[in-house]
Design goal:
224 residues; mainly alpha; 9 helices
Length: 224
């Protein structure tokens, strides 16, 4: 937290916001055009869920945990359809969920849960964890983040070997992202997938790692 920032009389809104950011200790400028709608969305979510999230049908809870947002070239259109409209309306049509309750669980609880889980990759996984592959970079291995994000928390490995499609050295039961890609590989729709070899992983870890044991260490070669 930095010291108090003096704001001169007659300062523009932009200057006031910059001074507020410095007072909070932020290193980068906040994109207020994005931050304000996000804050308002959270406020609306708290109000709506407080009043309408319960009672809820069990089908809505099950559906809420298994709906994935589409990330494709037409992101905004598919996000609107697959993240909001379909999850909400299917619950209303198929098992008679109240529309206010469906909105609470699909548009707020599910979406914001996923939203904040993804944010942990560049927050918690940059602050807590270990760095077995490269101790000179900020990203870390964090199992909690990996679980929340379905496999995206092995962040030190990802930055050490950014070309590796698995984004992790080892198999992880929660790494649904890699499992999803492997499924398309089996179908022949995903190909030319690159991976780091054990020799590359062990070599980098021995040179730059923090000493944390690897999942698949290679035996050191010794001369007879």
């Amino acid at each position: 937290m930095s010291g108090k920032v003096d704001i001169k009389p007659g300062s523009s809104i932009s200057e006031i916001l910059r001074g507020f950011e410095k007072q909070l200790g932020f290193k980068n400028e906040i994109k207020w055009s994005t931050a304000i709608p996000i804050v308002l969305y959270h406020v609306l979510a708290v109000y709506w869920c407080y009043h309408y999230a319960f009672p809820v049908k069990w089908q809505t809870l099950l559906f809420e945990t298994n709906t994935i947002s589409a990330i494709v070239i037409y992101f905004n259109y598919f996000k609107l359809m697959f993240c909001y409209i379909l999850p909400t309306t299917l619950g209303i049509w198929l098992w008679g969920e109240q529309w206010r309750c469906a909105v609470a669980w699909q548009c707020f609880i599910r979406f914001l849960g996923m939203f904040h889980s993804e944010l942990t990759v560049n927050s918690l996984a940059h602050a807590y964890g270990y760095r077995p592959y490269n101790k000179n970079i900020i990203p870390r291995e964090n199992r909690f983040v990996a679980t929340c994000t379905l496999g995206e928390g092995w962040h030190n490995y990802h930055h050490a070997f950014p070309f590796d499609y698995k984004a992790a050295e080892h198999f992880d039961a929660f790494n649904f992202c890699t499992t999803f890609i492997n499924g398309f590989k089996w179908l022949g729709w995903a190909y030319d997938l690159r991976e780091a070899t054990p020799q590359m992983i062990n070599g980098l870890a021995n040179r730059l790692g923090d000493g944390t044991p690897l999942h698949y260490p290679l035996a050191e070669q010794t001369d007879d």
